[in-house]
Structure to design on (372 residues):
């Protein structure tokens, strides 16, 4: 009997060969002045084209959106050309790939902006670390976005989405998660605005729907995904309060109106069972609310991934670290093969080591036979 993870699925008109999703992961290999995706990055993603769907690493939508070193952008024509190498390589291997659209907001640092402050809904320091060209540095108090700034950011998301399609991506994912800019708007501990983007749940969620309305002018809604992390707590300066989960309930319910490719949710990154106002079981809470395709992520293994689909709490499962060290992850699942361990020391380094040099199961076996 086929494992649930290995059954095909349709995202509207897009046919996926399995339900194993490669999660978006920052790998910091765009180590060039223009933050352009390279041949090495193309090789990395093509090696993992056995995934039903690849979601790329976060790709900044503008210079203002940058907050980590060596991350590829999607706002210049050189960046579009670089990403086109990636999509061509993935498609040549029969894969499907979405680009994740990213603005880090207050998680950035003046070092990325010629000394100018990073931006956020409100001038509240997340009191975290930013990964700058000089290493990790303390975050600073950001500049509060004006209404004109917000309008420009919505336009930047739209332009980036169009660029992604021009680069050959099958769709885009809006990164509204993990303490980055859109998530900062949602949470009343990060957003104390008193205008139409603050005060109420509807207002704090407004920017996401403005972004989606703008993107669907250039990309069909059924080729757009959204990523959320409702129970993120004490990470990236985000803390939960009594309005956090009701805000995400509102967002997820309203997303039903958009006919999206999927909603991508994360289970809590930390144990929140003792945290007031937290929801420890994200898939179980939101599966009954959301009517479209649901991807769940964070800490899943083969067995738990099959189980969450079998029990009807998700349609697909996104795997992160296992895909780093197992480029042929779906094949290993098919054969119940042992998984290789990833080297954490090379997660954010440069060059091929710990990036494109992990062998497939077949390559491992060929090496063993050659040694025998």
């Amino acid at each position: 009997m086929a494992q649930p993870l290995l059954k095909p699925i349709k995202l509207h008109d897009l046919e996926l060969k399995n339900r194993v999703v490669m999660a978006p992961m920052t790998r910091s290999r765009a180590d060039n002045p223009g933050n352009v995706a390279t041949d090495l990055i193309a090789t990395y993603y093509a090696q993992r084209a056995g995934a039903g769907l690849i979601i790329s690493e976060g790709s900044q939508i503008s210079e203002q959106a940058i907050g980590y070193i060596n991350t590829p952008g999607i706002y210049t024509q050189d960046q579009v050309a670089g990403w086109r190498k990636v999509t061509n390589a993935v498609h040549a291997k029969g894969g499907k790939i979405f680009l994740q659209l990213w603005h880090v907001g207050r998680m950035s640092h003046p070092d990325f902006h010629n000394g100018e402050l990073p931006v956020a809904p409100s001038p509240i320091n997340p009191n975290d670390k930013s990964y700058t060209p000089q290493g990790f540095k303390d975050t600073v108090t950001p500049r509060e976005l004006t209404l004109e700034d917000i309008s420009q950011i919505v336009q930047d998301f739209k332009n980036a989405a169009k660029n992604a399609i021009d680069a050959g991506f099958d769709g885009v994912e809006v990164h509204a998660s993990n303490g980055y800019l859109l998530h900062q708007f949602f949470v009343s501990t990060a957003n104390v605005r008193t205008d139409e983007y603050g005060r109420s749940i509807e207002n704090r969620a407004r920017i996401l729907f403005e972004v989606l309305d703008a993107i669907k002018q250039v990309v069909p809604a059924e080729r757009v995904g959204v990523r959320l992390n409702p129970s993120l707590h004490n990470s990236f300066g985000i803390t939960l309060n009594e309005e956090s989960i009701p805000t995400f309930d509102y967002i997820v319910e309203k997303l039903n109106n958009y006919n999206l490719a999927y909603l991508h949710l994360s289970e809590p990154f930390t144990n929140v069972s003792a945290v007031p106002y937290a929801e420890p079981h994200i898939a179980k809470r939101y599966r009954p609310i959301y009517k479209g395709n649901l991807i769940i992520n964070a800490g899943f293994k083969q067995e738990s991934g099959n189980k969450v689909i079998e029990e009807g709490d998700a349609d697909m499962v996104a795997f992160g670290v296992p895909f780093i060290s197992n480029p042929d992850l779906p094949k290993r699942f098919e054969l119940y093969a042992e998984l290789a361990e990833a080297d954490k020391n090379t997660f954010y380094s440069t060059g091929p080591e710990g990036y494109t040099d992990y062998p497939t199961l077949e390559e491992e076996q060929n090496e063993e036979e050659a040694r025998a």
